[in-house]
Each structure stands twice: as structure tokens, then as C-alpha cells.
Design a protein that fits this description.
The complex is a heterodimer. By secondary structure, chain A is an alpha/beta fold. Helices cover 39% and strands 15% of the residues of chain A. By secondary structure, chain B is α/β, with parallel strands linked by helices. Chain B is 29% helix and 17% strand.
């Protein structure tokens, strides 16, 4: 068996230098006339180990982590030329215990089944991995639309964009509305801070999304398809365009596709200009139509009156990526995973203070704790786990004591957070929860389209209150005012953005009220994050009088002689934290 | 036909709804008003303001009624505490970013709330009596106030920021209009309501009493004023010298009030020659407007000396006796720094004193007197001894004042009034020789009839407060006796005329409510948005935005012509001057004041502007378009303007820029509106619920309450109904009125902005006859006679009749009748459409009603610039195209 060398060239890999690694290996191969196949793939989810290089030979699979150009030379020399794998660099292998074997092993890969395992720019590779088999099966077996919809219904698949609406039901509604023109839209406007599931799927397996859309189009009799993808995902758009062209060339898009008479479908990409609200389906439709991206009142739902006022089905990237697998393996196989009301798997983007930041796909029903500790490897620097933000700016903070909550729509909702599209931002003891709430609210406030009064003005006023709390100007009654505004905004907003914008504030008040009160009443930030509330002092025991802090202080607030204890003048100190970060002896104290 | 109506439970009642109908329409159909700011029936529902929220059973949160469609069995509640709370908060959130003034600082500041901006607008148009009518809604003494008001309005006038220290001459303008009205044969006479049969006794004919007389008499009550002095006016006559307020002006304004039916009985002093016992038996209510008239002494050693008296006694004595003091060869010292001190020193000059000192313990800056008075007194030769306090009055052998020993002062820390407290400088004593000392230090209220009243009151008791003034309920001005009210200085202590008038109105309202058996409710203060709620106005914001304009100063007597009691201020010379000064008004108050929905609902829901403090957006007003001005400070982002331009007009000239808190409305691509596809139709103005998009007019728009005349637009053949808004014949704007053709009230730019010709004084409104090559005005009968003769002088067929194309059908019909039936000729026609082709006629004869446009399956435009020629029909086409996606094709003619 020939040796294959595969370099991970997802955005994460490229960011870590994988292009250089690839170029190096390619150069070595050419100059030394080495005999192996060099391939590209995308992200396998292990972003924290990028650049990743996988070598497969007759003995098995070896995944090398953190392979920069220099290490690539070493790996090629040892492993290819001397057939001597470098155990120290291997992070995963199917032959022996490698450090990240658990990371891969504990996952169930349905959505990510191809990500990191094939060249996303090759339709052949996709086809070799059961690609386009699902739609071909439908065509060959002449499966009725109702049967397809029924399969999806039975699989229990729910919308992975965050709403959790049963996908089969959505299709059923769209199918029920007859019209000469109908559309299927893929929502690839992933905008939550800290979420990158959709990007990885689009970059790693664009054809599976196309195939999902084709099946949906078949099921609802759509005549046109649009992928609404944010322009900030250039690589995803590039690979999608390649995939669309390849599909066209094969006759998988166009007229009478897959031999199904009258099944005409074209798909094009609409690049979004970066407005978060355009992830909301009615705003997304407005944006495709060339209007300002603002939501409108539902009903009518897009299934009745969507793009160009025609019946339209909108699903998220991850939802579509599930579809071919379900058709091939059957609804029961999918429904085998998960809980009573949440079936299948869910992809999470782990970020924040977690050791393994990256992508994981887990079966529904796993506890949040397991996701963070088993797959995520626990908290960085052995700090204490404090909370996890799920659902991005629309979601909420789940505190440590609720981390045995299982991953399913209803259990997560009960905590006040939401499943959302799958962002998990992990926080440790050094995270200030008021600051976190402020961060997310700042995001929604800026991303509000400005239409509804409560969302436009209410989030702004809430943010101003949070601002003053974190600046040490919190007042009695601020919490009540925040809560009053929050509930009013939730009750009186047109779209999900406004209806959920207060969630981060509400959940943090619910679980970390004492932290808010410390800011307001005692002007203290327990996590020592909110600078205006901190005092920097010199630890007289530890100070060596090295004068580093003194020289770096931008406002000359530190005095002292060489080898004498230094002193910080609190009246002058602007709490910039430079002394704290510059001191090599940990002798600047924060309180 | 199957009944496809829906069963809905609306506030507990079962009602029928139509499929596709929104909750808002259903509620309106059933007489339930739901507030909304972003909804306009001409437009598709949008849902942004969230003021129209209701509760629907089974639906989470509140539902916007404007866009929530009915479904079978829907249970709707349109009003409860939770809904009201949300509506109020929506309003308050909008108001927290509504950097705008409902009314100008002048009206905000005026104690009587006189609509200054409104009357300036009327003066601008030469409508002086209308201006007086507007003033008299809240102030019945404009000619008096036009002379002697302390003018808090002018202090606050924003012109000060622009033309340093030169506010609009508000008081001068008021005087000009009032003097005109007083002299006019058609002067303003308020309408007196039918008699209520109730009688009111008013004690004192000063400004407060006279005002109560005015306000209550026009409500239909009989007012009798009892005045202790032999003449009316109180302080106006006995305190203010004639060179400032001539008695004949006072008499004329008093006569205006007595002409309403108010009686004044003179030389009647309560407790002395008339008892409350009599009043009580005759009158249903009493209002005490007694003033605050007891002078206070100098308050130093020797102030019992002869020729030392209170300033007010000095002024009053001359008025009562008709004798002027003769101060020839004398030196007068006036002690005090208020307006009474000014009246005393300037009067002393007029009494020919050799030397007049004003002794004041602080500096000129702290003087409470009107600066113009200080200025004039200096011109007239008054000398000031600032930072000086009389310490001792030294007597001569006769016990009269010979000199006064004073001590110099210096300013220390600020006291309770905010002014720096004067502190004596030890050892700085000095002496000046004087012959008279006039103490103008303060006055006290004298309630010497209190025992008489309390002896005869049936219930309650009249009390005085710790300052010696009449004790009243602050909001209603009712005394301890239910039928007795009080107003003016007697309540407040020495204050201003305008404050007495303001109180008189409150007391009159309360007394009226009392008489009519209504609960006593002080007028609710209407919601007022204020820029000052956000930040203090600074001149930087005004400089450059407006031109500076020199103030029309008041012409005065030359200083050397003032040794008499002739009025010093001469009044504006004429209408041009008044017009010029009126033009200086910056129109700070909002022109949408009378029809702003935001204000209306803010009132209704008791919304406050400062419930949410925080950042607010400040924008430059866009004046670039000749007819349309855009003030984003007032915008609530309902996007109605943007949508009407898109959905109905089709011009897409406006858009929403930015997002979230930073969103604003602007012409597309940041251009001036006139450089976009804007049709200048003004539809945006017609839909704006606030004053954010308004008509940019050349005249002062007020706002003032207008009357309307409904008519048909005569610019084209469509025949849209319009309403002309006018004030006494001056057209101030045009609105569309739902008519046969324009059933949604839409109109185009021609009627909207093309009405200025109606205000043109050179417009021909009478028949003109050309005599020797020149037109001369003749009467209508003469014209008719002439036409009659001319027609009869030739054969019938030699006559031809041409009707103007802009006449109405009815008028054209009459012309045709005149021609055929009376003149017996068939030569009838019009020039207008000659040579415009047959197409017009054929088209017209098809008689397809315009309302059918919306049912067309395709629309073809044949050789018409429809948006130019018949824009309202163009709107119908565009709206059909927008709503129903009806294809529209333009074919060249």
C-alpha cells in the first residue's frame, strides 16, 4: 500500500502555518523524488494541535501534531525515509495509545464524517466516501417525497442552527405549499462569537451540504437554491464554489438531475455582508432580495411566503450535512443516538479557557461536563471551572454546578441558556460574569438591526447600566432595572435577536447575583477583571526593587529606588495593569 | 357564499374577523384605539415601534397588533397593566433618544405658558389681532406685559446664544401687536360662554384680579371685582410709573375686560367698607388677588427720620394725589437693587432731583432689576453706590434726614439665593448728604381682613403662612375655605406680573371647577420633550447653523427729553420692523406640536423623558431640499417615510443608514434629497408621526392652530381632495384628504407645496378692466353688466367661451350652460388640451375607474410621465406593482 501524507488545510490549520508545512513537504517530495501521495484535507477538529499532518501507510494511521515546516522535515525524514515514526509528535494513532486518542474516540462523527478525512476540493473523494449516494438511492428507488420527509421526521433531526425546530416538519410545511417556484436556502451566516462549526463543515465537506440541499429541494419540489454565506468565510466560499461547479459538471445540479424527470435545481452563493441579524431567516431572505437585512413578523413563515414571497425552506449548514447520512443509514440508525426529544449528534465549537479548543461532535445526551473535561481536556492552567456560555449571545451561562446537565435542547433550555448553534465558551475562575454579560450584550447591541424599539434602545440602555457597574458606578436598583428591561425586551421584539439578547444578562444574574452585587455595593470585582474596580499594590515581601514596573508605568505612578521596595501611588494609577504583567516576581498584588 | 369570517374573542367579546386582517384593524373596527407609531394604513405592516402591543392567549410575550394576523378562535386582550407598562417603556426608550424640543424655551419658561413662538409667527404675517387672541388664551394683559414684563422668555431665548445677549425682542413684538389691536376697530374680543348663573367676587383689581375677571367671565360666570383704590390696576397703576406704563394703556386693557361684563367697584376695601358677610351671601366663590403692598423700611438706625419712606409709598402717593414730588435742588438716595428701586430712582430724576443715588449692597451683577432698567437709569443720570450699606440715618434739627452714613461691603461666600453674601468692610464708613431716602428693599403682604373673613365663613378657615402670605393649596390655589381661592403676590409674596397672571389662570380654573361642581384638578402638565433634558444648550451648536441678525432695538426718548412722565419706550415704528424682528425667531419649538403622535401617546401613558438616561444621538438638521427638511433628532425610526417612498411613490429616495442605536434616516448615498430620485411629493411628510420630516417653509410656521378648508386640487385632471390649513386666510400648509379619487388621502407635490400663490398679496381676486392700456379694478356687478352688454352686442355665433382647464367639472358645466343656454352659442372650448392628441380622449372615454388599477393583470404606460403629470395615479400604479407584483411596462408614445 502506498503511503499517503495528508496536510490539514482548514482555516485553523492555515492560521497555524499549515500552508508552509504543505509547501515544505511538497518541495521535499519533489526534490528528493519521494514516493508518497501528498493530499490536502480540512479540519479534523483538533484545532489546538494544528498544523496536523497525517501519514497513512500499510501499518496504520499516524497523526502528527504541531507540524511546522521544520518539524515536517524531521517527520518526513524519519517516518518516510527511515520508516521510523516519531512517537513524541504523534497525537493520534489507531495503533497505540496517543495523547489525543480519547479526543477522537469519544466522538460520534456524522456531520463531521468527512471533515479532515478527505480533500474537500475533490468530488471523487466525496463520492468514494458514500457521497451523493443518498440522492442516488432516492432516485434509483424512486423514493417518494413523502417518504423522504417521513424519514427525516422519524430521524428526530431538529434544526441545528439553534432553533431546534423539527426539520422534517419544516420540510412538510414547505412541501404542502404548492407553487411553481420554491426555494431551498442554506443558512451559512454563522455569526456567534466563538462558533465555527459551519465554517469547518463548509471548508471540510462542502458536497455533503450540497447533497443535503439537493435532497431537501427534491422533498419540497424546490426550483432554486441559495447558500447565504458570510463573506468573512472566503475559504468556505471558495470550496463551495468549487463544489457547485463540480456538481454541475457531473450533472448533479442543473436540469433533470439524477435522472429524476423535471427535477431542476441550481444553487448559488449569496455572500452576506456581515450582519449578525441576517442569520435570522426573514432578515436573511430580505438580504438575498437586496433589501436591508431586517426581520419581519412571522407568520407568514418562509414555508408559506419566503424568498420572493414563494414557499421556502431554510436549514442550517449542519442540518443539511446530516441529511445524506440519515438517508443512507436510515432514520432508526440516526435516532439511536441521543435522548428522547433530541436525536443524533451535535457539533460543538469549544473555545475559551478550555485546553482543547476545537470542534467536537458528540451524541446528544452527553453531559456538558464530559464535553468539557473528556473531550475538551478540562480547564487550561488547572484553574477552577466556573461556567460555560452556550448559544452565543442568544444563550446563557451555565454554572459549574449545573454542568451535569445533558446536551439536549430541552435540558439546556431549562437552565436559561440555549443549545444554539453549538458554541461553547468555557470560563474559569478568572472570568468576571458581569464582564461576560457585557461582552455578549455589547455584541447584540451593536448587531441589532435597529428596527424594534426595545432591541435598539433597550439593549443600549442595558449595556450602559452594565458599563457603569463594571466601571464602579453601579447604583442600587440597577439589577432590578436590568431585569425589568430584559424581560420587556424579550417580550417585545420581533426576532430571535431581540427576544434572546438579554439571556446572557439574565442567566448571569440568576446564577452569579452575588458577583453583580459585589460590583454594585462593594465596588469589587471578585474575578479581578474589571480594572476600574481593582487596586494594584506592591507585595513588599516579594518586590526586589528591579524598577521594571516603575519604568513601564505609563503615568509614572510607581516610585522607588533600585533595590528598594516600590510603591504605587493610587491617586495616579490608571489601573492599566502594565506593572502586573511586567513584574517577573509576581510581586504586584491585585485586590 | 361560504362565511369565511373568523371568530375572535376581543377583550372578552366575541367578534367577527376577516381572514388576513390584523389585530389592529379589527380593534379599530370595533372602536378600540390601540396606539401605534409605525403603522400607516397606506403601507404594509412593518412593526418597529412596539407601542401597539397586545396579548394573545397562547403566544409568548406581547404581539404587535399591527402585523399579527387573525386566526380562528384567537383570544386578544388590548389593554391591561402589563400591556400599558410595555407601551410606556417603548415610549420612554424612544424618548430617551429624542433630542428635541416640543416647545421653545420661551414658552417653557413663561410662567403663564404664553405661546411665544405661535404669536411671533402670526406677527410675522401681520396678523396682529390673531396674535393678541393667542396671547390672551393665557395672558389677558398683553399691552401691559408688552411694556413692563420682566421677560424670563427673553433670558432663555436661544437667539442669545447666536447673537450674544440679544434675544428676540419678544416683549417688543407683543407690545407692537397689542398696541395695534387696541387701536384696531376689529380688535380681538373673546367669546363669552353662555351664563352659568354663578357669581364670583374678586378682591383687588391688580393684574391678578383683572386676569381672574377675564378668565372667569369668558367661562360664563359673572365676575365683580372689589377694589380698595379709586382706580383699577393695583400695582400697575400705583407702583409702576407712567413713563414705563402709561395709564391710558392700562385703562384700555381694563376696559377690554370690563367690556366682557366684568364689574369693578372702587373704593371698596374688604374688612373696612365691605364685609365678607355681604360677599358670601351674594357670591358663589371668592378669589383674593390682594397683592403684596406693604413697604419695608431701611432697617437701620434713624430710619424713622422725616423724608425717609418706602419706595412704594412714594410711587403710590403721587398716583393717588395726582401730585408729583418736587425734588428740585434735592439729593435722593434709593436703597435697594430691584425693579422698585429702578422705578424710584428714575421717577426721582423725573421729579427734577439734583442728584439721585442708588445704594446697593452687592454689585451690579447681582442686582435683581431688569438690566435694561439699569441701563436706562444710568442714561438718565442716576449714580450707583455698589457694595454699600446704609448704616445710620443722620437727622437734622427738624428730625428729617440730613445725611446717611454708609459702610462699604465686600462679597463673601454665596448664600441660599446663590448670590455671594455681602460682608461689611470694617472702618470703611463714609457719609453722604441726602434730603430724601426711598427704601425699595421689599414688600409684605397685608391680610388685614382675615378676621372679617374668618368671622363669617361657614366652613374652613383662611390662614396665612409663615411668610405672612395667604395659605393655599399649591396646585389648585384653593384656600382653607372651599369657595375661596387666591392668586398673585398675596400668595407668593412680591413677584412679577406674569406670575400673578399665571396664578390667576390656575385659580380661575379651580374656581370654575368648584362652581361647576367638578373635582378640583389642576391642569395636567402635558408631556414636553426638551433638549435641556439631555444637555444644556451651548452656542457652539447654533453658530454657523443660523445667520446672525441684528436685533431691532426699542426706540426710546432721548435722555434729555425724559424729565417728564412721558413714555420712554416708543414702540416699534411699523410692520416692517416687527416683521424683521419676528424673523429672528429660531423656531425652537416643533412644528408638529399639534399633531405629534409621540407626544400624544407620551401624554396618554405618562411617559417620562428621563426614565432612561444615557447616550443620545445628535444630528444636524438637513435643510438642503427646498421643501422638505429632515431632523433625525426627532426620528423614532418607524421607517414610514422610507417605506412610503418605496411602496407607494417608488422613488426609493430615503433609506435607513447604519444599524442598531446608530440607525438614522437619510437620502440614499448621503446625497441631498433633491439629487436623488426624490419626486418632492411630500408623502414622507404626510406619514411622519413626529416632526422628523417636515415642510421647509419660507414663513414662520408657528405652529399655530389653523382652520381647514376642504377643496379639490386644480393642478391636474385627477381631482384629489385636499385640505388647506390656514390661519385667517394665510395658507400654512396643505394636507391630502381621503376623497373619491385619492381615497387614501395621497396627494402629490403640486398641491402639497404649490399653495404659496394663495398668500400672494398681488393675486387677482377682483375683476379687472383694461382702461387706456391699464388694468383697473371694477366691482363684480359692473363686470357682469359689461360682459352681458358685450355678449348681447353681437350675434350669438360670434361669441366664443373658453374655460380654464383647471376649473372644476361643475364650473365647466356652468360655462357650457352659460354659452349654450344663455348666449345661444356652441362655441365652447378650452385651450389647454388642444393639440395633445386623440389618445387622451379615447382614454378618458374608456372610463375605467382608477380604483381598478390594483386588479389589473398588467399595466401599460402609454406616453405619459405619470409621476410628473398625475402623480397620485402614479402612486396607485407603483403601489399595485409593489403589493401585487403587477408588471408595469412603459411604452413610448
Amino acid at each position: 500500500m502506498a503511503i499517503t501524507v495528508t496536510v490539514g488545510l482548514g482555516s485553523c490549520g492555515i492560521a497555524a502555518g499549515a500552508n508552509k508545512t504543505y509547501a515544505k513537504i511538497k518541495a521535499l517530495k519533489e526534490t528528493d523524488k519521494l514516493d508518497f501521495k501528498l493530499k490536502k484535507t480540512s479540519c479534523v477538529g483538533m484545532c489546538y494541535r494544528e498544523p496536523l499532518v497525517e501519514i497513512t501507510d500499510e501499518t496504520g494511521t499516524y497523526l502528527y501534531g504541531e507540524v511546522d515546516a521544520d518539524r515536517a522535515v524531521e517527520v518526513i525524514e524519519k517516518h518516510i525515509n527511515q520508516q521510523d515514526p516519531i512517537r513524541d509528535y504523534i497525537v493520534y494513532s489507531d495503533l497505540f495509545d496517543a495523547p489525543e486518542n480519547d479526543f477522537i474516540g469519544a466522538q460520534v462523527k456524522i456531520v463531521l464524517r468527512n471533515c479532515g478525512y478527505m480533500d474537500p476540493e475533490s468530488i471523487e473523494e466525496y463520492e468514494s466516501r458514500d457521497g451523493y449516494k443518498a440522492i442516488k438511492k432516492i432516485a434509483e428507488e424512486k423514493t417518494g417525497r413523502d417518504v423522504v420527509i417521513d424519514t427525516i421526521l422519524k430521524s428526530g433531526l431538529r434544526g441545528r442552527g439553534g432553533g431546534g425546530f423539527p426539520t422534517g416538519l419544516k420540510w412538510k410545511f414547505a412541501n404542502a405549499n404548492k407553487s411553481a417556484d420554491k426555494y431551498v436556502i442554506c443558512n451559512a451566516d454563522e455569526g456567534d462569537p466563538g462558533a465555527f462549526m459551519d465554517r469547518s463543515v463548509l471548508e471540510g465537506d462542502p458536497h455533503s451540504v450540497l447533497e443535503g440541499m439537493i435532497i431537501a429541494a427534491y422533498a419540497i419540489e424546490a426550483t432554486g437554491g441559495v447558500i447565504y454565506c458570510r463573506a468573512e468565510y472566503p475559504l468556505a466560499i471558495k470550496r463551495l464554489n468549487i463544489a457547485i461547479k463540480q456538481a454541475h459538471d457531473r450533472g448533479y445540479l442543473g436540469k433533470n438531475i439524477f435522472g429524476i424527470d423535471g427535477f431542476d435545481l441550481d444553487i448559488y452563493i449569496k455572500e452576506g455582508a456581515g450582519a449578525f441579524v441576517c442569520g435570522e431567516e426573514t432578515a436573511l431572505i430580505a438580504s438575498i432580495e437586496g433589501e436591508r437585512g431586517m426581520p419581519r413578523k412571522r407568520p407568514p413563515f418562509p414555508a408559506v411566503s419566503g424568498l420572493w414571497k414563494k414557499p421556502t425552506n431554510i436549514n442550517n449548514v449542519e442540518t443539511f450535512a446530516n441529511i445524506p447520512w440519515i438517508i443512507i443509514h436510515g432514520a432508526e440508525a440516526y435516532a439511536k443516538y441521543g435522548t428522547e426529544k433530541s436525536k443524533g449528534t451535535k457539533v460543538f465549537a469549544l473555545a475559551g479557557k478550555v485546553r482543547h479548543s476545537g470542534l467536537v461532535e458528540v451524541p446528544m445526551g452527553m453531559t456538558i461536563r464530559d464535553v468539557i473535561f473528556k473531550l475538551g481536556g478540562g480547564i487550561k492552567n488547572n484553574k477552577r471551572f466556573k461556567a460555560v456560555q452556550m448559544g452565543g449571545p442568544s444563550g446563557g451561562c451555565i454554572p459549574e454546578f449545573l454542568s451535569d446537565t445533558i446536551v439536549d435542547y430541552d435540558s439546556v433550555n431549562a437552565t436559561g441558556a440555549i443549545m444554539g448553534s453549538g458554541g461553547m465558551v468555557v470560563m474559569d475562575e478568572t472570568t468576571c460574569m458581569v464582564d461576560v454579560a457585557k461582552f455578549f450584550l455589547d455584541f447584540t447591541c451593536k448587531e441589532s438591526c435597529g428596527k424594534c424599539t426595545f432591541c435598539r434602545m433597550g439593549t443600549k440602555r442595558m449595556l450602559e447600566i452594565l458599563d457603569r457597574i463594571t466601571n464602579g458606578h453601579g447604583r442600587e436598583g440597577d439589577l432590578e432595572k436590568l431585569e425589568e428591561l430584559a424581560y420587556q425586551i424579550k417580550d417585545n421584539s420581533l426576532c430571535g435577536l431581540g427576544q434572546t439578547a438579554p439571556n446572557p444578562v439574565l442567566t448571569t444574574i440568576r446564577y452569579f447575583r452575588d458577583e453583580y452585587e459585589a460590583h454594585i455595593s462593594h465596588k469589587k470585582c471578585p474575578a479581578k477583571v474589571c480594572r476600574p474596580l481593582l487596586t494594584y499594590k506592591v507585595d513588599e515581601e516579594k518586590c526586589t526593587g528591579c524598577m521594571v514596573c516603575l519604568k513601564n508605568c505609563p503615568v509614572k505612578a510607581i516610585t522607588g529606588e533600585r533595590k528598594q521596595k516600590h510603591l504605587i501611588n493610587q491617586d495616579l494609577c490608571t489601573k492599566c495593569g502594565v506593572c502586573f504583567s511586567k513584574c517577573k516576581f509576581e510581586s504586584i498584588l491585585l485586590s | 357564499m361560504a362565511d369565511n369570517s373568523l371568530n375572535i374573542i376581543l377583550n372578552g367579546n366575541i367578534v367577527k374577523g376577516h381572514p388576513g386582517e390584523t389585530i389592529l384593524t379589527l380593534a379599530n373596527r370595533h372602536g378600540i384605539e390601540i396606539p401605534t407609531l409605525c403603522n400607516d394604513d397606506r403601507l404594509e405592516p412593518f412593526t418597529s415601534c412596539y407601542v401597539c402591543v397586545v396579548e394573545v392567549e397562547g403566544m409568548r410575550g406581547h404581539q404587535p397588533s399591527c402585523s399579527t394576523k387573525l386566526t380562528e378562535g384567537m383570544k386578544i386582550i388590548t389593554d391591561n397593566e402589563g400591556i400599558r407598562k410595555s407601551r410606556k417603556m417603548a415610549l420612554e426608550l424612544m424618548l430617551s433618544n429624542h433630542y428635541a424640543d416640543c416647545i421653545g424655551p420661551c414658552k417653557q419658561t413663561c410662567p403663564a405658558g404664553v405661546d411665544v413662538q405661535g404669536y411671533i409667527s402670526l406677527i410675522d404675517k401681520g396678523q396682529y389681532s390673531e396674535a393678541v387672541a393667542l396671547i390672551k388664551e393665557t395672558n389677558p394683559l398683553p399691552a401691559i406685559c408688552g411694556r413692563v414684563c420682566v421677560r424670563p422668555c427673553e433670558t432663555e431665548c436661544r437667539r442669545n446664544l447666536l447673537d450674544e445677549g440679544a434675544p428676540v425682542g419678544i416683549d417688543y413684538l407683543k407690545r407692537f401687536a397689542s398696541d395695534f389691536d387696541l387701536a384696531s376697530p376689529d380688535k380681538y374680543v373673546p367669546v363669552v360662554k353662555p351664563s352659568t348663573g354663578k357669581r364670583v367676587a374678586v378682591i383687588g383689581a391688580g393684574p391678578g384680579g383683572l386676569s381672574v375677571g377675564h378668565f372667569m367671565q369668558i367661562e360664563g360666570h359673572q365676575v365683580d371685582i372689589y377694589e380698595a383704590a379709586p382706580k383699577p390696576g393695583g400695582w400697575l397703576r400705583y407702583g409702576i410709573p407712567e413713563y414705563r406704563l402709561p395709564n391710558d394703556i392700562l385703562d384700555q386693557e381694563v376696559k377690554n375686560i370690563t367690556d366682557l361684563g366684568v364689574n369693578i367697584f372702587y373704593n371698596k376695601k374688604l374688612g373696612e367698607n365691605i364685609s365678607y358677610q355681604e360677599l358670601k351671601s351674594t357670591y358663589d366663590a371668592t378669589v383674593l388677588t390682594i397683592g403684596s403692598q406693604k413697604g419695608t423700611g431701611v432697617g437701620c438706625e434713624g430710619d424713622d427720620a422725616g423724608n425717609v419712606f418706602s419706595g412704594i409709598d412714594f410711587l403710590k402717593n403721587m398716583e393717588v394725589t395726582g401730585q408729583r414730588y418736587d425734588f428740585r435742588g434735592k439729593t435722593i438716595a434709593v436703597v435697594g437693587g430691584g425693579n422698585t428701586a429702578m422705578d424710584c430712582c428714575r421717577t426721582s430724576i423725573r421729579c427734577k432731583a439734583d442728584k439721585v443715588y442708588v445704594i446697593y449692597r452687592r454689585t451690579e451683577k447681582e442686582m435683581p432689576a431688569n438690566p435694561i432698567e439699569i441701563h436706562e437709569s444710568k442714561l438718565e443720570g442716576v449714580e450707583y453706590l455698589f457694595l454699600t450699606l446704609p448704616k445710620k440715618i443722620n437727622k437734622n434739627d427738624l428730625g428729617e434726614v440730613a445725611s446717611v452714613t454708609c459702610i462699604k461691603m465686600e462679597l463673601g461666600e454665596p448664600d441660599a439665593s446663590g448670590r455671594r453674601r455681602p460682608v461689611p468692610v470694617e472702618g470703611s464708613d463714609f457719609e453722604i448728604k441726602v434730603d430724601f431716602i426711598l427704601a425699595a428693599i421689599g414688600q409684605k403682604t397685608d391680610v388685614n381682613f382675615i378676621d372679617d373673613i374668618n368671622a363669617h365663613t361657614g366652613s374652613g378657615e383662611l390662614k396665612v403662612n409663615k411668610w405672612g402670605d395667604i395659605d393655599v393649596d399649591k396646585s389648585t390655589l384653593q384656600t382653607g375655605i372651599p369657595s375661596m381661592f387666591a392668586a398673585g403676590d398675596g400668595v407668593s409674596g412680591p413677584a412679577t406680573i406674569i406670575e400673578a397672571i399665571a396664578q390667576a389662570r390656575i385659580a380661575s380654573t379651580s374656581a370654575h371647577q368648584f362652581l361647576m361642581g367638578l373635582p378640583l384638578q389642576p391642569g395636567k402638565k402635558p408631556f414636553t420633550s426638551k433638549r435641556d433634558n439631555f444637555k444644556k444648550q451651548q452656542k457652539e451648536a447654533y453658530l454657523g447653523g443660523f445667520d446672525t441678525q441684528v436685533r431691532e432695538e426699542m426706540p426710546t426718548l432721548p435722555a434729555d427729553a425724559r424729565f417728564n412722565f412721558n413714555e420712554v419706550e416708543l414702540g416699534y415704528a411699523g410692520a416692517d420692523v416687527a416683521h424683521h424682528e419676528a424673523q429672528r425667531c429660531l423656531e425652537c419649538g416643533c412644528v408638529a406640536f399639534f399633531d405629534c403622535d409621540l407626544q400624544k401617546y407620551s401624554n396618554e401613558y405618562n411617559a417620562l423623558q428621563n426614565s432612561f438616561e444615557g447616550e443620545f444621538r445628535e444630528y444636524q438638521v438637513d435643510f438642503r431640499h427646498p421643501y422638505i427638511e429632515i431632523d433625525n433628532n426627532k426620528c423614532i425610526l418607524c421607517a414610514r417615510c422610507v417605506r412610503i417612498c418605496h411602496e407607494v411613490v417608488g422613488a426609493n429616495a430615503l433609506g435607513l443608514i447604519n444599524r442598531g442605536f446608530h440607525t438614522y434616516v437619510a437620502p440614499s448615498m448621503g446625497e441631498a434629497l433633491q439629487d436623488t430620485p426624490c419626486e418632492s411629493c411630500g408623502m414622507c411628510i404626510s406619514t411622519c408621526p413626529t416632526g422628523a420630516i417636515t415642510e421647509n417653509v419660507l414663513f414662520k410656521p408657528g405652529p399655530v392652530r389653523t382652520e381647514t378648508v376642504d377643496t379639490i386640487c386644480n393642478y391636474c385632471s385627477v381631482g384629489c381632495s385636499i385640505s388647506l390649513r390656514h390661519k385667517n386666510g394665510f395658507v400654512m400648509g396643505v394636507k391630502g384628504k381621503p376623497g373619491l379619487i385619492n381615497s387614501d388621502g395621497n396627494i402629490c407635490k403640486y398641491p402639497k407645496f404649490g399653495y404659496q400663490y394663495l398668500n400672494d398679496l398681488n393675486r387677482i381676486t377682483k375683476p379687472m378692466l383694461k382702461v387706456d392700456g391699464k388694468f383697473e379694478e371694477i366691482s363684480f356687478p359692473a363686470a357682469f353688466r359689461l360682459i352681458h352688454e358685450k355678449i348681447k352686442s353681437v350675434k350669438p355665433d360670434e361669441n366664443a367661451f373658453f374655460g380654464g382647464a383647471r376649473l372644476s367639472n361643475e364650473e365647466l358645466y356652468l360655462i357650457h350652460k352659460l354659452a349654450r343656454a344663455a348666449a345661444k352659442t356652441n362655441n365652447v372650448g378650452s385651450f389647454h388640451y388642444l393639440g395633445r392628441g386623440e389618445g387622451y380622449r379615447a382614454n378618458g372615454e374608456m372610463n375605467a375607474p382608477l380604483a381598478e388599477i390594483v386588479h389589473a393583470s398588467a399595466i401599460y404606460m402609454l406616453g405619459t410621465e405619470i409621476n410628473r403629470d398625475h402623480a397620485v395615479v402614479g402612486f396607485m400604479v407603483q403601489n399595485a406593482r409593489y403589493l401585487k407584483k403587477i408588471p408595469v411596462s412603459a411604452l413610448p408614445a
